[in-house]
Amino acid sequence: MQAFQKGVFYQIYPRSFNDSNGDGIGDIPGIIQKLDYLASLGVNYVWLSPVYASPNVDYGYDISDYLSINPEYGTMADMEKLIKEGKKRGIYFIMDLVMNHTSSEHAWFKASLDPDSPYRDYYYHRPGRGKKLPNNWTSFFGGKAWSQNPDGTYYLHLFAPNQPDLNWDHPNMYEEFKKIIRFWLDKGIKGFRCDVVNVMSKKTLVDGRPRLILKGLEHYHSTPKNHEILRRIRKEIIEPYGAFLVGETVMVDTKLANDLLGEGDSKELDMLFSFEHMDADQFLVKWFKRSFKPNKFSKILTKWQQSIPWNAIYLENHDQPRSVSRYGSNHYHKESAKMLSTLLLTLKGSPFIYQGQEIGMMNVDYKSIDDYKDVETKNIWALSKKLLFPRFYRWRMIKNVSRDNARSPMQWDAKGGFSTGTPWLRINHNQKKINVETQTEDGNSILSYYKRLIKIRNQYDVFVEGVFKPVYQRRGLFVYTRETQNMKVLIILNMTSKYKKYSYNLDGEILLRNYPPIEMKRLRPYEALIIEVPHD
User: Domain Glycosyl hydrolase family 13 catalytic, which positions (predicted)?
Assistant: First the structure.
């Protein structure tokens, strides 16, 4: 078992974590100020969303220089200090790595606009087909996947127009990223979370099959060349440094996940973020929601627990709505947040806590589309308006799904505590009740619960090494065991707002003392139990 598998991860979205200089934007010195907080929480690794130089069309996921720090966030000296100070506290950093596209402000792309430039083929520049685009592909952010150059040709972008796709068939592309990856590993970074890592290589640029969304997907999704690229990066760069890779993988099932994880020389990733459980409450795409079904959700989680050797466990991140708002309850806010934390920290795999999740932060309470800053949100609002979606439905889509739900500033105290200036994105009004300061002083808070549960996970190997086995998945109950040769625990989760009866005939010690005695047969709304049971 590798060292990272025993750790607990925490994701920081730097722009919204902590502002040290009052300009309303979170920064690296602000993260340094909160390292003791992270240490007290018990996390070992921090995934840092992009801090590279960027024009911020997609807030850092449009990178203009991979070897520089965005001045809004600080300097390279600040970054080096962050890595050093984190190490003193037993905290190590992994960085986001975007290899599918750059910013249109990157020097490579600017040079590529010249047809005679050696950088021309770093990207996909193509002539149109008469009055038509080079092909019929569509973007992940909505709309066409091609935008026009000044010379009348077009360039490919699977995401925003300001994020042109890189051409991994170019022989220089691997060498360019080898330099980038080694640069950061030499700084002391322990690994990378690789953004949309299975759509980098395009087999062909012909038209895609007719489909409602993502026309062209079959021509770039998890291609053989993509697998080859990842295997080479791992073998030649990552392994010599003893680092690791976490992949964000688009539309991946368990079979393809195992291909990406691999073994020996075929190994590509150490773990990956799958989306199937995130898709459980939607039709086709995330913007079309349906009622959350706990049984469907738990069955998907179970399938992934049983099908791949190691999972990256997450319930929210910078791209997903807040888990309490999505899977929990406003009325049972504390109870549902604790239940979800129990799920997160007792499944097999590496748990990823997203900033604010540990205090139960919720979706934003914005009243106008003007309050939102996310480029994807703006694009979907415009597209749905063009398609004549009723305003009430457009607004419901945005409120439930916008990425800004997760990107609102961290709530440090009742006044906000994020910045002495005006935050770049408005803070949720519930900061007065949901904040770190208040919960630190409350031994029964969500934050205190996270701390206890992380401590328990670190104390008992069963939560890291134990075999996962499903026991019961009906009526909104999710029951499973984790078992090693020396210990067995039963986890019982009520994922509903109703009282539930559950009979069991097990004797043993309850590891979390704030729960009712073991003889209790009725579970309260969103109650979670962790019970040590007799070992066979």
Answer: 11-407
Which of 96, 165, 248, 483 is catalytic? The answer is 248
How far from 503 is each of 192, 295, 470, 518, 533, CA to CA, in Å? 45, 18, 16, 11, 14
CATH of the domain at 524: 2.60.40.1180
Domain boundary among 416, 437, 456: 456
For residue 409, give the nearest of 390, 431, 391, 432 by alpha carbon.
Answer: 431
Model pTM score:
0.94
User: Does 18 reside within a domain?
Assistant: yes
**Nearest 5°: phi and psi at 226?**
-60, -45
Alpha helices in 237-374 (DSSP H): 239-241, 254-261, 294-307, 323-327, 333-346
Residue 10 sits in the same domain as residue 36? yes
Tell me how far apart the terminal alpha carbons of the chain are, to the nearest angstrom.
24
461 is catalytic: no
Quote the CA–CA distance of 357 and 41 in Å, as a whole number.
Answer: 12
Asked if 71 and 25 count as a contact pair (C-beta separation under 8 A), the reply is no
Is 519 catalytic? The answer is: no
d(CA 350, CA 352): 7
129: Cβ contacts below 8 Å, ≥ 6 apart = none
Strand order in the sheet with 244-248: 271-273, 244-248, 191-195, 92-98, 45-48, 9-12, 350-354, 312-313
Structural domains of the chain, count: 2
Residues 6+ apart with CB under 8 A from 333: 324, 360, 362, 434
Q: Residue 273: which domain range?
A: 3-105+165-365+403-456
pLDDT value at residue 507? 41
Phi, psi of 264 (to 5 degrees): 60, -130
Residue type, 249: T
506 falls in which pLDDT band (50, 70, 90)?
Answer: very low
Q: Does residue 492 lie in a domain region?
A: yes
Catalytic residue chosen out of the listed positions 58, 195, 270, 281 = 195
Judged against a pLDDT cut of 50, whether residue 227 lies above it is answered with: yes
Q: Which two three-digit tokens encode residue 403?
A: 């990425």
CA 363 centroid distance within chain: 16
Residue 462 in contact with residue 488, Cβ under 8 Å? yes
Residue 117 within a domain: no
